[in-house]
């Protein structure tokens, strides 16, 4: 079938890729959901799924009469397997109670690996003189697979870059006896007109004191003033809120019958809010003086 047009070859290869990838995608989805969600497939299972993809790809290429069907079947099956394996890591499997026993929502996503990998391989074999065509069929699957194997490092790098480019001053309080348990970056437009970082600190209970937490929000100074921020909310869950001023343009908000205390102030070129439970107004005022520069990498390390 050497007279097949490029369009016909790519079209047939796409259909073969779809058929080849379905059983492989189902295996990947089941295995990753059941017990290997954060680790690679066991070697034996990896080899079996690879052989399955290569055999199905070769049989499909032969039946479809693709040029160089033997090579296309092996290379296309391998490319399909690599792309499905990459997608299985990069696209998480939803919780089973959301979609039933079969992770049907992710299988079609994984099948995209075959729909891309197999026609890419068939097309490259039609253009042996074009080095970039051959390079694509090597770089795309291997690049995706490599990215999947380094997903934690890539996500960590991206998180650091997000903090660096957020426009939010990179500062945080040094709270003695407290542990930084969570950091969230809110980009512009998600919750506020200005970007912000939200940090949560916990202090465990002891025989002499109870558990307490302090939530810290940091905005650029353009987000507003401490006074306006304090007065922006006057009621929360039917609890009346009250604001009072402290020296140095600091404002404290409290609510009737609640233990939460909120302090609004400026720290350098940032507007900050400290929201505490199990702490006093004096504790928050003291915490305000502990704000220090912090690196984006340190912020990204928090859960």
Helical stretch tally:
10
Cα gyration radius (Å): 28 Å
What fraction of residues sit in β-strands?
A: 15-25%
The total of beta strands comes to: 10
Overall pLDDT metric: 79
Measured distance between first and last alpha carbons? 57 Å
Number of domains: 2
Shape: elongated
Transmembrane segments: 12-31, 43-65, 71-93, 105-125, 131-148
Keywords: Membrane, Transmembrane, Transmembrane helix
Keywords:
303 residues, alpha+beta, Protein Transport Mog1p, Chain A, 2 domains, 8-stranded antiparallel beta sheet, two-stranded antiparallel sheet, 10 helices, 10 strands, elongated, membrane, transmembrane helix, transmembrane
How would you sum up this structure, described in words?
By secondary structure, the protein is an alpha+beta fold. The protein folds into 2 domains: 6-149, no CATH class; 163-301, Protein Transport Mog1p, Chain A, CATH 3.40.1000. Helices cover 50% and strands 20% of the residues. It has an 8-stranded antiparallel β-sheet with strand order 2-3-4-9-8-7-6-5. Helix 3 (69-90) runs antiparallel to helix 5 (107-126). The radius of gyration is 28 Å and the shape is elongated. The relative contact order is 0.10. The model has no long low-confidence stretch (mean pLDDT 79).
In summary, what is this structure?
The chain is α+β, with helices and mostly antiparallel strands and about 300 residues long. It has helices at about 5-35, 45-65, 70-90, 95-100, 105-125, 130-150, 150-165, 225-230, 280-290, 295-300, and strands at about 170-175, 180-185, 195-205, 210-220, 235, 240-245, 250-255, 260-265, 270-275, 290-295. The strands form 2 sheets. It has an 8-stranded antiparallel sheet. Strands 1-10 form a two-stranded antiparallel sheet.
């Amino acid at each position: 079938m050497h007279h097949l047009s490029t369009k016909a070859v790519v079209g047939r290869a796409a259909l073969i890729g779809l058929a080849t990838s379905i059983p492989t995608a189902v295996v990947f989805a089941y295995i990753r959901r059941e017990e290997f969600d954060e680790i690679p497939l066991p070697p034996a299972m990896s080899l079996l799924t690879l052989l399955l993809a290569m055999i199905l790809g070769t049989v499909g290429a032969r039946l479809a009469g693709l040029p160089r069907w033997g090579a296309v079947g092996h290379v296309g099956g391998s490319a399909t397997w690599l792309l499905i394996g990459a997608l299985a890591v990069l696209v998480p499997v939803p919780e089973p109670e959301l979609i039933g026993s079969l992770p049907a929502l992710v299988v079609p996503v994984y099948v995209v690996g075959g729909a891309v990998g197999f026609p890419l391989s068939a097309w490259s074999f039609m253009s042996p003189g074009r080095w970039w065509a051959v390079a694509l069929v090597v770089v795309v699957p291997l690049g995706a697979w490599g990215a999947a194997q380094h997903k934690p490092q890539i996500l960590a790098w991206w998180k650091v870059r997000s903090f660096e480019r957020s426009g939010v001053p990179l500062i945080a309080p040094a709270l003695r006896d407290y542990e930084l348990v969570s950091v969230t970056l809110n980009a512009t437009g998600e919750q506020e007109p200005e970007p912000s970082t939200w940090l949560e600190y916990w202090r465990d209970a002891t025989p002499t004191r109870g558990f307490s937490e302090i939530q810290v929000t940091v905005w650029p100074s353009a987000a507003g003033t401490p006074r306006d921020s304090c007065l922006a909310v006057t009621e929360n869950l039917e609890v009346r809120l009250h604001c009072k001023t402290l020296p140095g343009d600091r404002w404290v908000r409290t609510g009737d019958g609640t233990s939460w205390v909120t302090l609004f102030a400026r720290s350098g070129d940032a507007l900050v809010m400290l929201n505490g439970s199990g702490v006093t107004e004096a504790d928050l005022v003291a915490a305000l003086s502990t704000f220090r520069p912090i690196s984006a990498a340190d912020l990204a390390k928090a859960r």
